Each structure stands twice: as C-alpha cells, then as structure tokens.
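Hi R.,

As promised, here are both runs. First protein below:
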Amino acid sequence: MHKTYLNGITIAYERLGRGTPFVLLHGYPLDHIIWQPIVSLLQDRADLILPDLRGFGESETTAAGYSLADMAADVAGLLDNLKIKQAALAGHSMGGYIALAFAHAYPKRILGLGLVASQALPDTPDRRRGRYDTVEQVKFHGVDVVADAMPPRLTPAHELQAVLREMILRQPPEGMIGALRALAERPDATPYLSGFDFPVTIVHGLEDVLIPIERAREVQSSVAQGYLIELNGVGHMPMMEAPRLTAEALITLV
C-alpha cells in the first residue's frame, strides 16, 4: 500500500496496471480489497487506483464529523498528489455516493462514471434513523454488531459472506461511525444527473436486498449517456459475485 497525506489525514491506496487512470471506491463497511477479483481483468487497460476511504482499511480519519463531499475531496486530493487531472471513477454502494459527489463538485475531472450497486436517492427517514441506531450500537459494542448482521444482506453467496465478515471486523469503529453519519446526511443526487456530459455505466444485481434494481433504472433514465447491466442471481457485491461481467461493464469507461 502507498500512503499520502492530504486534508489533514493519511490516505492509503493501491496502484496497479497501466493506461487510463481509473479510481475504484469501495463501499461501507469495507475497504479496497473488494475490487481484487476484477483487478486482473482491468489492469491491462487501466491505471487502477484503489484507495481505502477515510476511516477504512489503512486510511486515517478525524474525530470531527465529515460529509461524503469531504470524502470526495479526499479523492480529488489523491488525484492532485498523483498529478492526475482526469480519471474514470467507479464506486460501490457508499463509494457510488462519493463518486456522485465527486462528479458534481469536479465534473471536468471525470472521464466516465461507474455506479456499482448504488443509487442517487438519499436515505429514507427510517433508513436514516437506522444508521444512527447502528452508530450507537458500534459505540457500545464495537464493529462485531455490523460484522454479524451485514454479510447476509451483502450477498447470498455463503462463501463470500465469511470473507466479508472478516473484512468488516478489520475496520476501525471510528471510521464506521463517521461513515454512517455521512451516509445518513447525504443529499439527493438526482437533480444533477441530467447535467452529466460523460458516460455513466451502472452495474446492479437483481438479488440486491439493500438497494433495489429500480434505483439503478432511475439513474439510467436520468443521465444522457447511461448504460445499465442487470445481473441475475447477484446481490450487493457484483465485483465479487460476478467479476468478469462487472469488469466488462466497467472497462467501457476507459
């Protein structure tokens, strides 16, 4: 892992391959390792940059609260430090929300946008309350409460559930709490989708129980250059459940 200091914290990232710069942003409550199944399928055509988002993996976080826009600014700072002016950007779940925030704040830096098991809408009131309930649970009981509950919702594949549980257990509680608060307060990204003048590739599993396929279809219908691949039998982790199909979809962005 490489490390760089920006916005008052150290961000860790992996860099592999050659070609068009392509940043892959992981979801909550995971780290950059989720992308490993598709790295070998992309690295011959893309300069892959896989950061651990603030508070996850080997990246630091701050005690003060922060937003998904702040996390998007971390991505911009990483690109600045790597002297990369433009890149394709794809995000999984929370990483997709951050990718949307990046595209809104820095549209001229985007070559293409990928959304994997993500959406543009904000949390419903019930979902928002649920995130704050989880914040309190993590405060008092640690990340085990998330590691025990979330893997079956991430994927129907039992062998992957065990892998994801171990990954969640590695995450620091402070980062999980910060991300939950940022997720709960994220704005609706729908109003600015129509202004995107770059290609948008959407990958979504039909068995996703966290974000229904209708949310992906709404994004496709709202952007000018939208391509949607719907994956049968796949849940919330397409890059791990269907790596080849996910890679084939994302490579169109570079």
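And here is the second one, sequence first, then its structure tokens:
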Amino acid sequence: MANAAPADLASLPAAYRAWRASDLGRITDRIEEELILTLTAPVAVKKVLDVGRGDGVLSVTLARQGANVTGVDVDRSMLEAARDRARGAHADATYIEGNARSLPFADGTFDVVVAITVLCFVPDAGSAVSEMARVLRPGGRLVIGELGRHSLWTAKRGAIYYPPCNLCARLLGPIDRHLAKVTTTGAAFIALAADKLADHS
C-alpha cells in the first residue's frame, strides 16, 4: 500500500482483523488462498518472496508448507502484525521493510515471488513487476493476484464472483471455483502465474 496516508497505515492491522472476523472475509480469503497456492505449488524448500504481504497470512501458510519465506512491505505496523502471526503459528518466516519498486535483494535470489493485491497500490506497477522479475531466478515462478477492474468489489477489496456481502459469500462461495473454470468476466480477483525463462547464454 505504497500510496496510503500514514493515518491509514496505522489502522491497517485492525482492518485486516475485522475483515477476517466476518463471513465475507473468511470465505473470500479461503478462495483466494486456494487459487494462489495452486499456482505456487509445490513450495517445500523453495525460497519464496511475498511482496506486500499484508498481515502475513499467505507467508505463514507458505512457510508451514516448507518454504523459506521472506515477506517485504513498506508499512512497519503490517510487518509487526506479520511477525506476530508467524510467532503465533510457529512458522519460520522473515519480514523486512522494503519497497516493491526497489527490492533489497540480489538478482535471482528467489525461486517464487508472489504479489497479492499489491500492484493496485503502487504508483508505477511496471517498475514493481520488473523488480520482482529481477529477483526471481531463471526458471522461477512469479504469481500475481489483483483486483478485477469490472466487478462490484473494485471499490472495496478484491475477490471472487459474488457481490461483497456476507449472505452472498455464504450462498455462492461454494460454486465460485466452477465459475472460475468458465470465465474471468466479473471476477473481482484475478491471478496469473508466469515462469521466468531460463538463461541459455
């Protein structure tokens, strides 16, 4: 959330907790996470970078699957929330302060790089994607999940085909994966994966 005001950043951990306490948040996060884990798998013993990792839910899940996870974010309060989550889950993950447009890592450091609903907050998303590709090893995988442009969610938070309400999530969440096999039209969360070409020089 590179362009959020400092006052907004201070309230983010509480906002994430409130979101995850709702049916809408729990159902939506579960569907998003399943999609991302499908695109990243398998991660055991791989070096994974989680860019803009929020409060650490995804990075903790990846660490518990055996990945060597590093999370990076510009917001110190979110980094501390992620560290607390990792400690509470007995997950081994490292969190450092950094900007998606200038990642503090050497070229080719990671086997997998994930960025989930991050680029929509970065003023120059192209430079952030270039940085993610730079720190990815040849043959490594980049996974990006972002808000769908034409959905009922775009003014709120990214995910899924149902409207952003608890009842809709409970009723339509179970059929979401079937819709995803047919179309991305109307999806509020869209994910893609790309493998970096191996260096044949």
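A quick note on the second one: The chain has one domain: 6-195. Let me know what you think.

Best,
J.
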